[in-house]
Specification:
The chain is of the alpha/beta class and about 350 residues long. The protein has helices at about 10-20, 115-120, 160-170, 190-195, 205-210, 215, 235-240, 285-295, 325-330; strands at about 40-50, 55-60, 75-80, 85-90, 100-105, 125-130, 135, 150-155, 175-180, 200-205, 225-230, 250-255, 265-270, 275-280, 310-315, 320, 335, 340, 345-350. The chain contains nine helices and 19 strands. The structure holds FE2/S2 (inorganic) cluster. The site of FE2/S2 (inorganic) cluster has 12 residues, from loops.
């Protein structure tokens, strides 16, 4: 995900979201709570939302009927799975629905187990869930944003944060276009919901159209457009490259996988607690290597901003590549192994991985 940054436009968007969602006279503002407070939600409904059966949406409701904290398009939840894993999923439902949240998860059998665990959750199961957070906020043209129109690009399950964005844009009468890409049509979730927008949503699949180029993804993008993209890293890179020199176009992106390691070098990682030694290749993160031995190792964003994967360095020099630790935290030995590494050949860390 992109790093969360304060956005002065969000308040303006919030007002619009409230108007759009028609909050009624009996609405009660959510109780303020600490930012990291969690909610206990129940899996009220599971629905298969892609023809290949590998994407399931989950409607998560409160157990006592209380109103849920509000959210804006682009927000996500941290889901605490029964195994102890923590995963982030974008909210893809209706912000007007204060009785439940909707997320959708693609099952990735070759992944680290979080998506499979989610898919195995039956209706009625309870989950601990963070309050919504937004690392991918939408600024609406004509309502605070200097852009004149919006162009959305979604890759596969990257449709999830885009769905509420385009609903809001549509409800506000904003000029928008969209390209939705995937490997095959049967892998694309929410096609039925997108059908309501007709040809405004261009669907391209690799099996019939080939891999999309920047020109394909940016077809019709004119000066004054804000592009919002969520998808795999290669697709975002294609867009970013295609927009080099386009100072007349804004670009906002959220990726759903860890960034590739750039200029990495191999090193040895030692766990002080157990004495185990791991070889971290130049192109992998220490977190990925540790997760093979400890599948329940805590992590969430895998992009260096949530702090979930924090370890303590007890020996060696760290190459900090995160965007969230303070100088004091780094000086005290904190390290975020999803993105950070060793400066030298060896790093000894202390971590509670059991
Ligand atoms: S997993 Fe979020 S900072 Fe490492």
């Amino acid at each position: 995900m992109t790093h969360a940054t304060p956005d002065p436009l969000l308040d303006a968007v919030e007002v619009l979201v409230k108007a759009w969602t028609r909050i009624g006279p009996t609405a009660v503002p959510p109780s303020p709570g600490p930012r990291d407070a969690t909610l206990e939600l129940v899996v009220a409904e599971r629905t298969v939302v892609a023809t290949d059966q590998d994407v399931v949406s989950f409607q998560l409701s409160t157990t006592d009927g209380a109103r849920l904290p509000k959210w804006r398009p682009g927000a996500h939840l941290d889901i605490h799975l029964p195994s102890g894993r923590k995963r982030q999923y974008s909210l893809c439902g209706d912000p007007a629905d204060r009785s439940s949240y909707r997320i959708a998860v693609r099952r990735i059998p070759e992944g680290l187990g979080g998506s499979v665990e989610m898919h195995d959750l039956p209706e009625g199961n309870t989950l601990r869930v963070s309050r919504p957070r937004n690392a991918f906020p939408l600024a609406v043209p004509g309502h605070g944003s200097p852009a004149e129109r919006l162009h959305f690009v979604a890759g596969g399950i990257g449709i999830t944060p885009i769905l509420p964005m385009l609903r809001l844009a549509d409800a506000l009468g904003v000029d928008w276009t969209m390209v939705y890409v995937g490997r095959r049509r049967d892998t694309l979730p929410f096609l039925d919901e997108l059908a309501a927008y007709g040809d405004r949503v261009v669907i391209r699949t690799d099996d019939t159209d080939g891999l999309p180029t920047a020109a394909d993804l940016l077809a019709g993008v004119e000066a004054g457009t804000a592009v919002y993209c969520c998808g795999p890293v290669p697709m975002i890179d294609v867009l970013r490259t295609g927009l080099i020199g386009r100072t007349d176009v804004e670009f906002h992106s959220e990726r759903f996988s860890a960034p590739p390691v750039v200029d990495g070098r191999a090193f040895t990682l030692e766990l002080e607690n157990t004495g185990e030694v791991f070889e971290v290749p130049a192109d992998r993160s220490p977190l990925d290597v540790l997760a093979e031995a400890y599948p329940a190792i805590p992590y969430s964003c895998r992009q260096g901003f949530c702090g979930t994967c924090r370890l303590n360095v007890v020996e060696g020099e760290a190459d900090h590549r995160d965007g969230s630790l303070t100088a004091d935290e780094r000086a005290a030995g904190s390290l975020l192994p999803c993105v950070s590494r060793a400066r030298g050949d060896r790093l000894v860390v202390r971590a509670d991985l059991y």
